[in-house]
Amino acid sequence: MIRTFLFMITFINGISLLALPAQAAVITGVANGVEVDGKFTVEGPGGEAAAEIDGKLIIDKVYDSVDPIDIKFEVDGSSGEDSLYGVIEFFHNSTGQDWDDYHLELGYGGFDNATDSDPFVQSSDEDELYFVPPLEQVLPVFDTVMFMDNAIWLEDGIFPADASNVMFYQINVPGADSVPNARDGFYEFTLRQYPSIENGAVIPEPSTLFLLGLGWLGAAGARRKLR
Description:
This protein is mainly beta. The chain has one domain (2-226). 13% of the residues lie in helices and 40% in strands. Strands 1, 2, 5, 7, 8, 10, 11 and 13 form an 8-stranded antiparallel β-sheet that branches. It has a 5-stranded mixed β-sheet with strand order 3-4-6-12-9, with helices on one face. A hairpin with a 2-residue loop joins strand 3 and strand 4 (56-63). The termini are far apart.
């Protein structure tokens, strides 16, 4: 399954269907080279990074526990203008338990493996760092998707152990003028994600994520052209 998803990442990264405007606040890389903190296992392009950046974010994660996964991005916001990034996220449940919910949050700081501390702070409305609806699930596992500016909660579903899924959403990345911790036009922000677990019935894992994902990308590109 992991190898399949890595192929999907490489293939989708070359598709221009998820076209986005020219970037003003530019995500330049994952902070400190390849820094991804949390209690988890990461699988990504080349088996090293958790994200690729080319006008969009492509993220691949494997959860060994329900502890948060924090991905810290570096941003050049010296233009002072916001940018919209599309996110293609692959995630895999290797916790051995079914999930009932899945959560995404935006903020600063995050889990530090070296000190086993968690100085994560959610972004505020004034920061202009926020999720932009809609969120699409290739596998519609969660019936309820709740959007807040700095968080998305997916609820009312069962995501089985050993299953994988893909979802698509957008993040508004601000210029440095609105970010409290910016220095000389540069700053870092954190994308935090974590599931929650309760008892529930298992549903079968599908085998059509790739084709469905490409279909969604085509529809997203068509919708953007119509705007």
